[in-house]
Structures are given as C-alpha cells and as structure tokens.
Design brief:
The chain is mostly beta strands. The protein has one domain: Sandwich (Immunoglobulin-like). It is built from 1 helix and 10 strands, in the order αββββββββββ. Strands 1, 2, 3, 5, 7 and 9 form a 6-stranded antiparallel sheet that branches. The protein has a 4-stranded antiparallel sheet with strand order 6-8-4-10, with no helix packed on it. The longest helix has 19 residues. The radius of gyration is 24 Å and the shape is elongated. The two termini are about 45 Å apart. About 15% of the residues are buried.
Length: about 160
C-alpha cells in the first residue's frame, strides 16, 4: 500500500512540475499596404520611352510589432493573386524599432518569393519596426493590368 502511495505522490509531483512549465507566446502584427499606380507620367522621357524600372515605397510603408520573451526570427514570403514574372518585389527593414530587445539583419533589399525566407532576427519585444518595399522589373513590355500579391511576415522562436 505504501509503495502504491509513493508512486501516486511521484506521479502527482511530475504532473505539478509539468504544469509549472512556462510557455511564452510570441506574436507579430503587421500594419500597412502599398498601392502603386504606374501610368504615362512614369515614362522616362515621354511618349515612346520606357517606364521607370523601379519604384520604392515609403520607408515606413509597413510597420511590424513583435511581442516575445526570447529570441525570434522574422520570415517573409508572398502569395501572388495576379503577378507578371518580370516583376520583382523586394523588402528591407529601415529601422530598429523600439523596445527592450535587440534586432539585426534585413537592412538590405532582398527579393520576396513564394517560399519563406529569413528577413531579420532579434530578441524580446520590438515595436514600430519600419519596413520598405521596392518593385523592380517594370517596363512597357509588361502588359498593363492590376497586379496583386500578398506579403506575409511570420515570427518564430529561435
């Protein structure tokens, strides 16, 4: 009987220790979108010339807020609704944001593809991280249309 009671006590202690394990939530919030209209005013030298080949958004076009208790990394990818293969969308981080944590990487443009790729990393909470977008590959050879893609930012523990 005493042996069975010892097992029950050990089992209860194990359950209590497992319940005491702290799990920290990590989250990201992205705010912003970029609507770009390209028309005849974007011709480099008027009628008969090509369009400007690249366009950049405001340096704070997208703002990211990250809540975390440890180290994290931000990945980026895009999902095209209607997209021409000559167009390339690039992204970079233009500020460190604010908060108790640190942040590094992502300060140079990199192309956003349909596959998750690392953008930058950091630790603890960081708020108001500014993100800039850039569209390249624009030309009169790209047929006029309403091109659209959705950019997804994902944060994960590291």
């Amino acid at each position: 009987m005493k042996k069975a009671l010892d097992y029950i006590i050990v089992a209860c202690l194990f359950i209590l220790l497992a319940a005491a394990t702290v799990t920290w939530a990590i989250s990201i919030n992205a705010t912003g979108q970029w609507d770009l209209t390209i028309d005849s005013s974007d011709l480099q030298a008027g009628p008969g010339s090509d369009l400007n080949p690249s366009y950049s958004s405001a340096v704070d076009q997208v703002i990211l807020d990250i809540i975390a208790a440890g180290n994290w990394g931000v990945d980026v990818n895009k999902s095209d609704s209607n997209w021409h293969s000559n167009l390339h969308l690039n992204v970079k981080r233009t500020s460190d944001g604010t908060g108790a944590g640190t942040i590094s990487g992502g300060s140079a443009y990199q192309e956003i593809t349909g596959t998750n790729q690392s953008l930058f990393s950091g630790s603890l909470d960081r708020n108001t991280i500014n993100i800039q977008l850039q569209l390249t590959g624009v030309s009169i050879t790209v047929p006029p249309d309403n091109y659209s893609t959705t950019v997804t930012y994902t944060v994960a523990d590291q």
